[in-house]
Design goal:
The structure holds two protein chains of two kinds. Chain A is mainly alpha-helical. Chain A is 67% helix and 0% strand. Chain A is globular, with a radius of gyration of 18 Å. The mean pLDDT of chain A is 86. Classes of the chains: A mainly alpha, B alpha+beta.
Chain lengths: 189, 263
């Protein structure tokens, strides 16, 4: 997160969204500074293609500019929505699916277990997430990563790994149970 | 899982992860479309799975993306606020404005500093002039010392002893003289003269009037030394010291105190 002025650093996502609705370009720039690094990292991890990463990153924030009026901060988290949209767009590009319509606000309500508006909060959560993944059994972690970063379904993971479908389902179910416990707001990594 | 609520709570996370396919996925979505409670649970599951993005190594966005985005925004949307400017420009403008606010006191401080520096410079110039004087004085003394060394080592230098005259103050003196160089050194012992009197050293040439070689009056010390220059090539017949009015005279007028012939 770089480039935000002191005033923008103090502004909440909701405030900046409201200013975007009023066509304040500096508010969009501030949100870009706040979250573009996070999105760029995951886009690059999924796509491993710098040009595609840049295109999708620009598209996401341009969509935010166009449809900000439809975003209700009370219903969901902006960084959560941005992460979901980034992953969906990247997986679609990776699997050569048709890209999303670009109007995903209503279809993808996302509630994060914590606030990511400050860089400190982002760093703390990054540590928590990495720790949770590191503590998973290696087969569970591999299955989670195939699902999240490559967009594979149960049956596709089973086909990729050669493991029985039931085994894959069990591993993933156990993994998300563990992650859910670790990602609770009051839980320690 | 049936078309009712998901039977296991982790189903929301698995759906958010995107691993359902086929009938399983269709059944989940069919129920979700009409169940606000499950939509809320899915929203939380979406958030949990979204956090997996944070496990990847941080990679800053390419520097050109933001500028392209803002150009795209500016080209397609009417503005109600000022245009976005790159952070570097914004920072530069902010710094410039702050400097303007500081300009007046800074200028005043600069003017005061200039005045103080000018005064200090004036003091330094005077000090430099003093040092120049000291250097010139030292150079003069050095030159005199070299002259004396040359005088003492020259073969044609003569040494003349001056003797006390009858009924005059007790004293002795010696003159070292080199006519070729026109240089002499007097060193003697005489009692202090009255305040209105001075001793005066004379070179008595072989022909012509005596030439004054210096005026002196020992007040606190009866030892006197004079280094004097006379016209080079002046052949000396004798040297003499007379008592003259204070400050001396162009020609001897007072009593002769010491005399020494050049042999």
């Amino acid at each position: 997160m770089t480039g935000e002025t002191g005033t923008e650093l103090r502004a909440s996502d909701a405030t900046l969204i409201a200013r975007i609705v009023e066509r304040d370009e500096s508010a969009l720039a501030a949100l870009y500074d706040r979250y573009a690094g996070m999105l760029s990292s995951v886009l690059n991890r999924i796509l491993r293609d710098a040009q595609a990463t840049e295109e999708i990153l620009q598209d996401i924030f341009y969509q935010l500019w166009r449809t900000a009026a439809r975003f209700d901060p009370a219903r969901g988290s902006l960084p959560g929505w941005l992460l979901v949209i980034a992953r969906n767009r990247a997986i679609s590009r990776l699997r050569r699916h048709n890209p999303a319509s670009g109007e995903e606000f209503l279809e993808n309500t996302v509630v994060l277990p914590t606030n990511l508006e400050s860089n400190i909060a982002q760093q703390q959560l990054i540590g928590k997430v990495k720790s949770a993944l590191d503590n998973l059994p290696i087969e569970q972690r591999a299955a989670i990563e195939l699902a999240y970063f490559e967009g594979l379904t149960h049956s596709e993971i089973a086909a990729r790994t050669g493991d029985p479908l039931g085994t894959v389902k069990t591993r993933l179910r156990s993994a998300v149970e563990t992650l859910k416990r670790n990602f609770q707001p009051s839980s320690k990594p | 899982m049936t078309s009712g609520h998901p039977t296991r709570p982790e189903d929301f996370d698995l759906y958010a992860l995107g691993v359902f396919d086929g009938d399983e996925k269709a059944a989940f979505e069919a129920h979700l479309a009409s169940c606000a409670s499950c939509q809320a649970q899915l929203a939380e599951a979406n958030g949990r799975m979204a956090l997996l993005a944070l496990s990847v190594p941080a990679m800053p966005p390419a520097p050109g993306v933001k500028e392209r985005l803002m150009r795209q925004v500016a080209a397609t949307s009417p503005r109600t606020s000022g245009p976005w400017v790159p952070a570097e420009v914004e920072r530069a403008e902010g710094v410039f404005a702050r400097w303007w606010g500081l300009l007046l006191p800074v200028a005043s401080a600069f003017a005061l500093a200039t005045l103080l520096l000018w005064l200090h410079n004036d003091q330094l110039e005077r000090r430099i002039a003093e040092l120049h004087g000291t250097v010139n004085e030292q150079q003069g003394k050095l030159s005199q010392a070299r002259d004396l060394a040359d005088l003492m080592s020259a073969r044609d230098t003569v040494v003349v002893s001056l003797a006390m005259q009858k009924n005059q103050p007790e004293g002795t003196a010696r003159v070292i003289y080199n006519s070729r160089r026109g240089l002499l050194v007097y060193n003697g012992h005489l009692p202090p003269a009255a305040a209105d009197k001075s001793y005066q050293l004379w070179l008595v040439p072989a022909s012509g009037a005596p030439i004054s070689a210096g005026v002196f009056n020992p007040v606190t010390d009866d030892t006197n030394s004079i280094v004097a220059k006379v016209p080079p090539g002046t052949a000396a017949k004798a040297f003499a010291v007379t008592l003259e009015p204070a400050g001396g005279k162009p020609a001897p007028t007072g009593p002769m105190i010491l005399v020494g012939p050049v042999s």
